[in-house]
């Protein structure tokens, strides 16, 4: 029974001491131990086996039991001490809690006392500072009242002085006083309900109105609108009046500027009336010379009268440009039939030069009237470029060649570009028609020169090179494009583009396609026996060497035209307005030159192909069933190789600058020759086994020649392009397989067999 009770006690104790893994891990971290008895998975059997691994070790069992009992007694003592120590913990905790509550109550009482004292102190401070605040408010109100009374005194005195100075025309003092009065009056906007303040404000407005009317009358008296003479002149009174106008309503300033400029340019309207001889385009220089003199005269006489920020010199020049544009447009509409190209270009050139001078002298701030935009500071001494010697501009004005020279492109930041020259745009059709006529004559001259000089000769620098007329055409195109873009970037550029397209097509048709040699379908009428007996060099190519050079030259020229036309399209799109860019399209013309290139390559292929036709015909009619032994390559192979060696080096040499098109020629020839060769193989019937072996040898010889075709006859050996080599290997391998299949079939058949039927 004792043992059973101990066993049940052990089971109950194990159930009670079973801890969760988290608690066990925490205990191990706080109290690390290497003792097996402290492990959660302690096993008594394993522990005993560890203590007594063998039977001999049982001799020490008493010592082990004594050690364990001693350890148990120590643990019991420790547990007993801890349990006894915990009996007083609850009582100590309650005592500590009571002490904490008492301390909190004492602290709360002290805080309340501090708060009461703070409220008493605040009340005391308020009572002390109440009188100080009242004094501060009184001081602030007194200061405001004194300031307002001072402003009122200044305003009243200023208005009286302003009215008196206005009557005496003392504009110098008025300019400074008026601005001060206006600034002071701004402080009284919130007091306008007071009758006296409102009365002073009305007096200021009346004084401003009177000043404006008076200043305009003074300028009208000094610079009368009627008549070209100027009885008045610059004076200190008018200079001070301009300073006053800066403070008055901006409309006063604008009216002064408008009247002065109109009076200053009244003489111009009389001198260059529509019915006057000097109004026509051939004397357009006189217009610009007149305004140059007027601007110099203005700077000398009136430069100090107007404030610098008014930019009067620029305003006069800008108004002159507007008037000139209107007058020139009017006179050109009236005499439109008298406008010639040289006269129009002369007028445009002089006008654009004048606009360039304006850009050098002025900033263009009056064109946009941007508020706050200031002109760069300049000395008061005249710095007008119009003072430069004008004789250099007049020299050579009658020379026609100067008109054809393209001028420098206008600066992109020239604010005056087109301010006058815009009037010429409706009449640029004269220039476009002239270019149409000039280009037509240029194409006719190219045709005549080609016929007179003849095609390029083989062995010369011209052989296979780009035709000189091509470069001349595009140089003229560039000159026309630059010239027209300086005149206009709108519809005239589109019209010029149409002209370019027209003559690009004519050049392709008349100069390039029109001069390609004509191919003939006649193969030459050679007999089989004569072809088999021909010797190397006895048969001439279908095209002569000069004709081959001509075809290559036309091909190179077409390639140059194709690339340059693409560049021309890009340049035209850069010159024209953005909204018109989509209307510029030279794709059709580039396709035309591509067609010329394809036709030229096709002619070269047809020529070499036709030269090989008699040899292939002879191959198909040879008695292959009578061949008794396999020898060297057959005569027809020798003939084909001879023609290839004659033509290909010439073509390669003349297409050295356009290597890709020579490669195209080789590919096209191979694509044409190999199917034709296989077709003639099928016509060779009947064939003996020896004949098939001879044909196989001939096929291998042709394959070798075709693989070397791009570099045949050249001292510099170049590897053929991979695409070309693939075509040759694929085509000739098919021919070899046909012949090999015939040989294999022949071994099990009769000596003569018609395999290809």
UniProtKB/TrEMBL annotation:
Signal peptide: none annotated. Residues 396-405 have a biased composition (Basic and acidic residues). It comes from Sparus aurata (Gilthead sea bream). The keyword Magnesium does not apply. Keywords: Coiled coil, Endosome, Golgi apparatus, Membrane. Residues 41-450 form the Vps53 N-terminal domain. Residues 370-413 are annotated as: Disordered. Residues 97-138 form a coiled coil. Residues 693-741 form the Vps53 C-terminal domain. Belongs to the VPS53 family. GO terms for cellular component: cytosol; endosome membrane; GARP complex. It is a peripheral membrane protein. It is found in: Endosome membrane; Golgi apparatus, trans-Golgi network membrane. This is Vacuolar protein sorting-associated protein 53 homolog. Its main location: membrane. GO terms for biological process: retrograde transport, endosome to Golgi.
């Amino acid at each position: 029974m004792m043992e059973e009770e101990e066993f049940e006690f052990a089971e109950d104790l194990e159930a009670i001491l079973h801890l969760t893994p988290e608690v066990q891990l925490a205990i191990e971290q706080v109290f690390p131990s290497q003792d097996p008895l402290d492990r959660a998975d302690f096993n008594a059997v394993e522990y005993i086996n560890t203590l007594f691994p063998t039977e001999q070790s049982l001799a020490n069992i008493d010592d082990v039991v004594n050690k364990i009992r001693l350890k148990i007694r120590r643990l019991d003592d420790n547990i007993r001490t801890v349990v006894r120590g915990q009996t007083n913990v609850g009582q100590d905790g309650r005592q500590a809690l009571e002490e904490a509550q008492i301390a909190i109550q004492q602290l709360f009482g002290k805080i309340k006392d501090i708060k009461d004292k703070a409220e008493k102190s605040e009340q005391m401070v308020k009572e002390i500072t109440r009188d100080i605040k009242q004094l501060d408010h009184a001081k602030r109100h007194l200061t405001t009242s004194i300031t307002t009374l001072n402003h009122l005194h200044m305003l009243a005195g200023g208005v009286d002085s302003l009215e008196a100075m206005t009557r005496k025309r003392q504009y110098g003092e008025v300019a400074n006083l008026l601005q001060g009065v206006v600034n002071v009056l701004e402080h009284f906007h919130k007091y306008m309900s007071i009758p006296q303040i409102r009365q002073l404000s009305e007096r200021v407005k009346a004084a401003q109105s009177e000043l404006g009317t008076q200043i305009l009358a003074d300028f009208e008296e000094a610079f009368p609108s009627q008549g070209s003479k100027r009885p008045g002149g610059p004076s200190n009174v008018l200079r001070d009046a301009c300073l006053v106008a800066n403070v008055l309503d901006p409309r006063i300033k604008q009216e002064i500027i408008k009247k002065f400029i109109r009076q200053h340019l009244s003489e111009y309207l009389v001198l260059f009336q529509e019915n006057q001889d000097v109004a026509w385009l051939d004397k357009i220089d006189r217009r610009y010379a007149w305004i140059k003199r007027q601007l110099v005269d203005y700077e000398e006489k009136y430069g100090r009268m107007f404030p610098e920020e008014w930019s009067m010199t620029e305003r006069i020049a800008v108004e002159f440009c507007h008037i000139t544009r209107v007058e020139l447009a009017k006179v050109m509409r009236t005499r439109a039939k008298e406008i010639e190209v040289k006269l129009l270009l002369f007028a445009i050139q002089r006008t654009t030069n004048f606009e360039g001078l304006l850009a050098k002298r002025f900033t263009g701030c009056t064109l946009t009237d941007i508020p706050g935009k200031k002109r760069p500071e300049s000395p008061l001494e005249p710095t007008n470029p119009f003072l430069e010697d004008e004789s250099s501009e007049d020299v050579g004005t009658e020379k026609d060649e100067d008109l054809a020279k393209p001028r420098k492109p206008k600066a992109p930041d020239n604010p005056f570009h087109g301010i006058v020259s815009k009037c010429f745009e409706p009449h640029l059709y004269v220039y476009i028609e002239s270019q149409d006529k000039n280009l037509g004559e240029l194409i006719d001259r190219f045709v005549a020169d080609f016929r007179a000089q003849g095609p390029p000769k083989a062995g010369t620098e011209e052989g296979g090179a780009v035709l000189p007329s091509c470069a001349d055409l595009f140089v003229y195109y560039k000159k026309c494009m630059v010239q027209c873009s300086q005149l206009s970037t709108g519809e005239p550029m589109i019209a010029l583009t149409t002209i370019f397209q027209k003559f690009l097509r004519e050049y392709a048709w008349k100069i390039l396609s029109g001069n390609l040699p004509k191919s003939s379908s006649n193969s030459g009428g050679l007999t089989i026996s004569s072809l088999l007996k021909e010797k190397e060099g006895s048969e001439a190519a279908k095209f002569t060497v000069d004709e081959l050079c001509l075809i290559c030259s036309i091909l190179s020229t077409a390639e140059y035209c194709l690339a340059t036309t693409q560049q021309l399209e890009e340049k035209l799109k850069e010159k024209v307005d953005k909204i018109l860019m989509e209307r510029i399209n030279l794709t059709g013309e580039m396709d035309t030159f591509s067609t010329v290139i394809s036709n030229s390559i096709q002619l070269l292929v047809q020529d070499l192909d036709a030269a090989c036709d008699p040899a292939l015909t002879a191959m198909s009619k040879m008695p292959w069933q009578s061949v008794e032994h396999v020898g060297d390559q057959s005569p027809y192979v020798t003939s084909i190789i001879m023609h290839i060696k004659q033509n290909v080096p010439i073509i390669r040499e003349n297409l050295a600058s356009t290597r890709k098109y020579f490669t195209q020629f080789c590919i096209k020839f191979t694509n044409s020759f190999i199917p034709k060769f296989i077709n003639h193989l099928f016509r060779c019937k009947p064939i003996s086994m020896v004949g098939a072996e001879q044909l196989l040898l001939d096929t291998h010889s042709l394959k070798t020649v075709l693989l070397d075709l791009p570099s045949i006859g050249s001292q510099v050996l170049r590897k053929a392009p991979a695409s070309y080599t693939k075509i040759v290997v694929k085509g000739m391998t098919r021919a070899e397989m046909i012949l090999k299949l015939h040989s294999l079939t022949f071994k099990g058949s009769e000596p003569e067999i018609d395999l290809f039927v």
